[in-house]
Amino acid sequence: MPLFSDPALSTAPRRRRLEAPATSSEPLKDKALEVHRRLCGVYGCPIPYFHSLDPLSELISSLLSHRTRNADSGRAFKALRARWPDWNAVEEAEVAEIEETIRGVTWPELKAPRIKAVLSAVRARAGKLSLDFLETLSVDEARGWLEAIPGIGPKTSAAVLSFSTLRMPALPVDSHHHRVAQRTGLIGPKVDVGPSHAVLRAQLPDDWSAQALYDNHEVLMLHGQQVCFHRSPACGRCVLLDICPTGQARQAKATEGR
Ligand code: SF4
């Protein structure tokens, strides 16, 4: 994908889309629950949370992590924290200094000004550099508040609400999660990561807890990382094979070729 077509890195002001709430058929809801049940059996739910950051710190961490390995974004986040005492100081730092500090991530030259711009937008809209107030909003309201800031999309807003100390019931979808959902037929082949958030959330019960939604994201992501690989999915050892059209098609093709 060309660098500047990536919506998460665009600097253009973005109007929030008014989307109709996603709906889902009963068979797909049943399938989503079955996928969740089986993968929880493999990866062990509840999955421990990997972060306990306040929501603003989680937002910065999430911006750093875009298209970047976890180890590299984690190092960049620690470097920011080590160089400046708080996010106020980062907001006032020179872009070049931030870029130099986060140079281990993908596209530091875009992420440095983005971090400064997002911090300034939070201050302007919230009156201070804190997102703790989001806990007083509903998930939809909190996501809408965050996504009104240019550069923050559905994945980042859901990550802030789910992974931070807010522990709100939001469902992030990363590229691994998205791949597994697409191959198993939970979403269609043309549903991109952004729109998939609403579709996949609508397949899960409305009253699921933050932990249950976090588990759903984590087990689909882990499955994408450990079994349903991008290039050569290991369908032969996948617990979803009998309910996965992609896996069955691949197995049938392999059998024909013998
Ligand atoms: S059967 Fe294959 S394609 Fe389907 S989810 Fe499992 S590994 Fe992925």
TrEMBL record:
Residues 1-26 are annotated as: Disordered. Residues 64-226 form the HhH-GPD domain. The keyword DNA damage applies. Its cofactor is [4Fe-4S] cluster. InterPro entries: DNA_glycosylase (IPR011257), Endouclease-III_FeS-bd_BS (IPR004035), HhH-GPD_domain (IPR003265), HhH_base_excis_C (IPR023170). GO terms for molecular function: lyase activity. SMART domains: ENDO3c. Keywords: DNA damage, DNA repair, Glycosidase, Hydrolase, Iron, Iron-sulfur, Lyase, Metal-binding. This is Ultraviolet N-glycosylase/AP lyase. It comes from Methylorubrum aminovorans.
